[in-house]
Amino acid sequence: MNRSRSKSESIVWNLFVKHAAGKTSTIILERSPHEISVKELKVMVEKKTGVPTSEQRLIFGGKQLENSKKLGDYPLLKHNATVFLILRLPGGADRISLEERHTPMDPGLQYSVDDPCMICFTHPNDEDQIYTARRLPLVMPCPGGHSVMHPHCFMQYCQNEIFDNKKEAICCPQCQTEWSLDIIKKYGVATEEEIEIFADGMSVNVIHNDPDVTECPGCLSYCERRSKKDIRMHCRICAKQGKNCEFCWHCKLNWKTRGTKECGNTNCKAVDILAQIKAAPLKRVVGVLCPSIRLCPYCGTAIQHAHSCKHMMCSTCKCEFCFICLRPARDGSWQCGRYNTKCVPAPRQEKVPTRKIIN
């Protein structure tokens, strides 16, 4: 681990904790990571942020840190690493270079001389391609060895999975074997900055994909409700700042009533929308069973499938997405194949997306 030592040989290292409204706090640790538990770290975080330990969820590299473990149990949790407490979506996808990368030469790696890259489809035996060892695709590490990619194609795959498909982990597209950040770094020839961007993105997805986590409209922090029945939310961060700290879980508007069941906002229709989604019957879309009503993954508009094609365009925000797997189109291309190609259905949505509409 990359740490500094004082004259007395005591270990001193830092962790950065991102929390409310994108703020970052520095936690100074003076013991070995193998001596500090996650529970102890939460106490330090509470002193910095005011968020009680019982209400904290610390996320690193797409994984939730467990109270019973030591920081040393997470090998990539190093000096100057960033842990997420209350999150805002970090940018960075545009800093991932998709330029061609030389294939690393390593006796521990397996190279494909027969099968083409599954992303760019170039074949080592193509007559119009000049293939050297530095341009051979790699056989990715999974039990079947059936995923073959160039390093730059692998990085593109990772970027799409994290930032477009909102995945919490990178897995083999064939057998779903999970690939660690170490594997991404090795097989994608990734830089430390690129690995940090991927780790941050996966951490954010853990929060965004949780149906019991939503964004506070006041401070843009993320709050987790303790019970699925709770819809009147109280934000501690806003309360500390002297702001109105109560809002509706569904419509994100200020709470207006004295009760806990109805927020008093006439435009609050999210409860009805979610009930509609839950009750929507299944139907076959290009031969795949999925809910007959979906919410636009960008703005939350309810869309009912009529017939034929699985590809949709939201009339509200113009977002294009697949009705079955909910993956958005990327640069005019569909990630799940043609209009009639079968893909894996996404589960019923349990939370109404509240992202801003781009004009």
Automatic annotation (TrEMBL):
Residues 113-347 form the RING-type domain. The keyword Hydrolase does not apply. GO terms for biological process: positive regulation of metabolic process. The keyword RNA-binding does not apply. Residues 13-91 form the Ubiquitin-like domain. Pathway: Protein modification; protein ubiquitination. GO terms for molecular function: transferase activity; zinc ion binding. InterPro entries: TRIAD_supradom (IPR044066), Ubiquitin-like_dom (IPR000626), Ubiquitin-like_domsf (IPR029071), Ubiquitin_ubiquitin-like (IPR050158). It comes from the Eukaryota. Keywords: Metal-binding, Phosphoprotein, Repeat, Transferase, Ubl conjugation pathway, Zinc, Zinc-finger. This is RBR-type E3 ubiquitin transferase. It comes from Amphimedon queenslandica.
